[in-house]
Amino acid sequence: MLxxxxxxxxPDGNPTPIWxxxxxxxxxxxxxxxxxxxxxxxxxxxxxxLGVDLGTFEDSVVSLAGANIPGVIFHESGLVYLSGMxxxxxxxxxxxxxxxxxxDAGTEIADGHLKRLHWALSCGGEGGDLxxxxxxxxxxxxVVSTDVEFGSGPAVVNGFSGRWQSVYGGALSEFAVDxxxxxxxxxxxxxxxxxGFTGRFSLEAEIIVAIxxxxxKSIIRNRGWLFPLPPVMYDxxxxxxx
Length: 242
What we know:
Helices cover 32% and strands 21% of the residues. Helix 3 (96-122) packs parallel to helix 4 (153-168). The protein has 242 residues and is α+β, with helices and mostly antiparallel strands. It has a single domain (5-241), classed as CATH 3.30.1330.40. The chain contains 6 helices and 8 strands, in the order E-E-H-H-E-E-H-E-H-E-E-H-E-H. The strands form 2 sheets. Strands 6-5-7-4-3-8 form a 6-stranded mixed sheet. The protein has a two-stranded antiparallel sheet with strand order 1-2.
């Protein structure tokens, strides 16, 4: 990963990276994107600046044995489906502090998804990683609230959407200035944000992203379409990793 050069500041006072050299994914150029909307930065530089912990191979690449629901499904079209994750400890209402709690939960979920997606893309050695995400497609946020007057569901889910836009580009990005992110629009996605659910958490969110079909097919041919890995593929990948 190339070190970023820094200029300017994030709202919390951290420096804003400006990427002088480009280290994009192996399959990114295969995407059917107009040149004007292509990213020109390494998303891992943004991830590092944001403090997102991607974990380790040993802790993150595990077997699907005993689990009924996978975390990630690859489709040969290039669509990648990530199952819902939950975070937060309080049900939502329209109080500012409660909404902020929900937004922080959304950011936590997005970080968990980024970690999961990083290893799902990279663990098999096909050459893919988070730089090979072409753009974010669709998010669904389900907000826990029994308050019939609750109207802040979209604001809560902005914590989730904003993290994806901070990594891949968009108006909700922490790198945006006056609603414009110099990184572009790859993080902008269609979304459903709804409340009224019950549960002992604040938010469940799921997301769909797009990668190049050739990368999807390479992953599926090598180790299947599921992550965590089916046991036979887990053994194969761990053996190759050493």
